Write a sequence for this structure.
């Protein structure tokens, strides 16, 4: 890794990263502020009970809205947080890899004394740093928000942190997949189309398969099948082995992407 390039890329990436972080913090504060009224509302509970079980499962509406951890699972981890991370993975990998290649091509890399392999690995580490920072800020925001704004309510910090860890490794793999497409594609628009299509398509598969037991076979092509907040809450999910598997596959994809990019012909 080239540290000079790492610092320069991280600085250029900081504005966009700040937007993701601020969105998460603001949204989480809003959820904490409305939780007391939501937890006491019988109307919301009645509405949830009236929905078909398959629809509730597909939308991630499972649990007790009066429980703070379940409330955050439903309204944060299963909703906006996933969308923010999808956008981060797709947009960041394109900005770090495909955009300079599409706009400056070989000149961008020939003007640098750093090898293409080091450039790409450095850019992946910039992506990794941003994803790690998002996860850490999310955990800290949740812990501080629950303590300062909802001190009287029970909040399981361990479960909250483990669910966030599960999401981190899932999106590390998703980011590695987007990175792979960014190195293979020759244009920014193509990389955007393929990455967005794969990520959003896989999420759509995850929602669809939960609507009926007849669609259970779709779990074999669903990355989000590894996202199991309910099982983590109950302590029945093999989080360590799953995280290790996701880390290994992400590392392999990163190495394959570097090898492809190293041997790729670039045009002036």
């Amino acid at each position: 890794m080239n540290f000079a390039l790492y610092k320069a890329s991280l600085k250029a990436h900081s504005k966009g990263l700040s937007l993701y972080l601020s969105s998460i913090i603001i949204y989480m504060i809003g959820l904490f502020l409305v939780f007391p009224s939501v937890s006491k509302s019988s109307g919301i509970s009645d509405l949830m009970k009236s929905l078909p079980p398959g629809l509730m499962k597909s939308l991630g509406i499972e649990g007790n809205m009066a429980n703070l951890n379940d409330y955050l699972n439903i309204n944060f981890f299963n909703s906006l947080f996933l969308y923010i991370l999808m956008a981060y993975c797709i947009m960041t990998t394109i900005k770090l890899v495909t955009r300079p290649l599409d706009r400056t091509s070989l000149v961008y890399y020939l003007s640098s004394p750093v090898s293409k392999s080091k450039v790409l690995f450095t850019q992946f580490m910039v992506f990794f740093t941003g994803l790690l920072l998002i996860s850490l800020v999310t955990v800290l925001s949740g812990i501080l928000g629950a303590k300062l704004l909802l001190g009287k309510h029970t909040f399981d910090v361990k479960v909250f942190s483990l669910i966030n860890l599960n999401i981190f490794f899932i999106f590390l793999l998703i980011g590695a997949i987007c990175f792979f497409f960014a190195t293979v594609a020759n244009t920014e628009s193509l990389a955007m189309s393929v990455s967005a299509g794969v990520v959003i398509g896989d999420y759509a598969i995850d929602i669809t398969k939960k609507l009926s037991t007849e669609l259970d076979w779709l779990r074999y092509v669903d990355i989000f099948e590894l996202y199991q907040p309910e099982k983590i809450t109950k302590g029945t999910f093999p989080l360590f082995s799953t995280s290790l598997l996701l880390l290994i596959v992400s590392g392999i994809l990163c190495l394959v992407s570097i090898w492809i990019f190293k041997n790729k012909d670039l045009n002036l």
Notes: The chain has a mean pLDDT of 83.
